[in-house]
Amino acid sequence: xxxxxxxxxxxxxxxxxxxxxxxxxxxxxxxxxxxxxxxxxxxxxxxxxxxxxxxxxxxxxxxxxxxxxxxxxxxxxxxxxxxxxxxxxxxxxxxxxxxxxxxxxxxxxxxxxxxxxxxxxxxxxxxxxxxxxxxxxxxxxxxxxxxxxxxxxxxxxxxxxxxxxxxxxxxxxxxxxxxxxxxxxxxxxxxxxxxxxxxxxxxxxxxxxxxxxxxxxxxxxxxxxxxxxxxxxxxxxxxxxxxxxxxxxxxxxxxxxxxxxxxxxxxxxxxxxxxxxxxxxxxxxxxxxxxxxxxxxxxxxxxxxxxxxxxxxxxxxxxxxxxxxxxxxxxxxxxxxxxxxxxxxxxxxxxxxxxxxxxxxxxxxxxxxxxxxxxxxxxxxxxxxxxxxxxxxxxxxxxxxxxxxxxxxxxxxxxxxxxxxxxxxxxxxxxxxxxxxxxxxxxxxxxxxxxxxxxxxxxxxxxxxxxxxxxxxxxxxxx
Length: 479
Known about the structure:
The chain has helices spanning 13-30, 37-45, 59-68, 114-126, 148-159, 171-184, 189-194, 212-223, 244-265, 292-308, 325-340, 361-378, 385-388, 390-396, 406-409, 427-432, 438-452, 462-478, and strands at residues 32-34, 49-51, 54-56, 73-75, 84-86, 92-95, 101-104, 108-111, 132-133, 163-164, 199-202, 209-210, 227-230, 234-236, 271-274, 277-280, 287-288, 312-315, 345-350, 352-353, 358-360. It is of the alpha/beta class. The chain has a domain at 67-378: TIM Barrel (Alpha-Beta Barrel). The strands form six sheets. Strands 6-19-18-15-13-11 form a six-stranded parallel beta sheet. Strands 2-3-1-12 form a four-stranded mixed beta sheet. Strand 16 and strand 17 (287-288) form a beta hairpin. The radius of gyration is 23 Å and the shape is globular.
């Protein structure tokens, strides 16, 4: 999908420079806490001042690292037709990743199981507008915590021919995602380093902390030539200043620190600028998503990513607890901010609910509808004599209608966006059909899609190799 419309800027060039200067000053003077000893040693060897766990970054080192990172990259999928490009005007929609719970209208909000997880993956596989799996739709809490990532990667490899995200929480999980992606793609680590297949989200622990598991994951991915998406979680008023400008400076400083570390590990490795700045509701202290502040932060994040020549990630979010009007309008606000902010990856593009605590089957379908509408909006409008149809207008008018016009009939199947879940019947027809609301229609649609889904089979021997890897690693991890 390509963004042929362009981007919007929320601040001017002088303001953007002020944010950049303040970010470098923050990294240099205040520094950032880096909790992994190996990461601190690497940063110290490159000239950073390290005191205990605090690292002070040299601005020249930071900007040299930024210059070394590529402005675009590709990720391989099991089906080469579904390989992904990031950079330029390309837009990729990824499914929700990381919630603790799952929800559907039939069983409500609950702890997820592996069976639920597999059904969610089947739904992701059914929706062409969802280009990438998002790193585990939710936790399968019926599986042991130490090894459930292995079952996730096995299910994603088996059920999807799309690219799936890795997990950066610690060296072992990151390494397992790399090794299993290599097996699924029929290659090895050397081949994967040449043509990456794994992207994983690395979250800083704002304010100004990179914890040990995330630092390990970052370094493991970079060592293997895979993609780090550096994404601070900066909530204005909680983990960041209550001013949007202050929160953006903090976000930017933390991203730049992560970019620097990736390039010290492996110069030239792809890295993505991730923006996830929003605000809290000051009445409750709860995170607020899909707000005007979130939208402006997404646009400013895109401006900064373009300034540094880095591929950019944003998200589709909502604070709503159900698939309702709030969920739709906050998600739509987020999507506009992400896409017109220039995001190359819209993470959590479909399925996110309850501030990210829950992955919803119905919301995945509703969001897919909004993503399809966004894709249609980004398509250019053909303007030529045939499309304008002056002869057709003259034949029909003055007066008359165009329903039976040859100009209309020639475009009957393709003239306008065809909805996935929207109901455009009049009131009487809607009543006769059972008066389903959006959530109920989405519930019916996801069940139909999951029931009809047939995954593209893995090449001979690959499933067996993956299963053998999983069993070996489970023995190693559990003793």
